Amino acid sequence: MSGREDLPGVAGGGRVDEGFGAVAEEFARNFTERGELGAAVTVYVGGRKVVDLWGGTADARTGRPWEAGTAVPVMSCAKGMLGVSAHLLAQQGVLDLDAPIAAYWPEFGRHGKERITTRMMLTHTAGLPLAERALTFEQIMAWTPMIEALAEQPPLWEPGTAYEYHAHALGFVLGEVIRRLTGSRPGAYFRTAIGDPLGLRAWIGVPEEEIPALARLVEAEGRPALPPADSLIMRALTLHGAVPFPGLDDPHGYNAPAVLTQEFPGAGAVSSADGLAALFAAATTGVGGGPRLLSEETVTDAVEQRSGGPTFSGLPDFGARNGTGFLVDSAFRRLLGPRSFATSGAGGQFAFGDDEFGVGFGYVTNRLGGSGDVRAERLIEAVRGCVGAAAAA
User: Fold this and answer.
1) In the list 19, 104, 281, 285, which could disulfide-bond 44, CB 3.0-4.6 Å?
2) 1-30 per-position pLDDT tens digit
3) What is the rounded distance in angstroms from the CA atom of residue 261 to the CA atom of residue 155?
4) Residue 392 — pLDDT band, cuts 50, 70, 90?
5) Is the separation of the CB atoms in 103 and 83 below 8 Å?
6) What residues does 57 pair with on adjacent strands?
7) What is the value of pTM for the model shown?
8) Which secondary structure element, helix H or strand E, spans residue 85, and what is its range?
9) Are 57 and 217 a contacting pair, CB within 8 Å?
10) DSSP state at residue 195
11) What gap in Å lies between CA 323 and CA 326, rounded to an integer?
């Protein structure tokens, strides 16, 4: 790997393999041209790390620098961790993605939810984007009250017939399915089955001792206005205001230990860039000579497009398309091709894998992107050029 001497204006560290200099150039441009504060990008190809770069400021309040392995709240990248977990359980024959959730969680199968499947939840088509019963922050983080509220909630539409982002309901419902099958909540299962064996700096429920070293999220200027607080998407996104979005200075927001140390499964993930990249590399090719987590057949199932377009509540089609548990290659976000599957976090965090090209990619940042944010997109374009992929968007 070559060094970092070719990254003017970026205080940090890391190395890149020959042939991947274009990724380093775009990483530098994110700082010099696109308003980056602190960030990291890691890329694996064929199970080998070929890009590992970090730089900038981890905490704007103190000037603490971003270091190797710095982790940051990555919000809905949690859904990618859950997606890998669900497909791993399906591959092992423990979970049938197309069986009714009620087969594993009988109390769920009421009020019109008898036929809802895990796949419907993972494709945001279950008709269950939220529980209408408003809970306190403490009740949400206690797990059981949230699970009970979702079990009592009728679907808002005929399951499987419409699409709406299941912001937190996906995490709690899938998390309870995982708990019923394994005896562990989803964050604990992820660490036991995937995170600890691979040595990943990635968690749903970060250990308390990691909190002081985390990068702190800040908002970018020019962030688009949010929908009205009483809209379906905002009620789902904030759980009726109990978890403010993004709420970066709120004691219940996405920098808060009260959120990050809990198993808040839809959006409470914390990870380094390497943690996400290594997860997707392990899922597609294996890391460091180890076996791949997900078989070719499993990835084929995951990347089949199953939802997207205008939403049930009337939001327009932004071009994003979903497989089962992941974003897939689309006009909204060009990846490497039809075998790519991805996860994103609000404000710019992004990770994906592709078993055709053997790639695992992770990018994390602490400045949430505003309108026209292209930081991750430019890094992905550079990777695409380096591996010779031509995405079919």
Assistant:
1) 281
2) 455 545 776 788 999 999 999 999 999 999
3) 30
4) very low
5) no
6) 65
7) 0.96
8) helix 78-91
9) no
10) I
11) 5
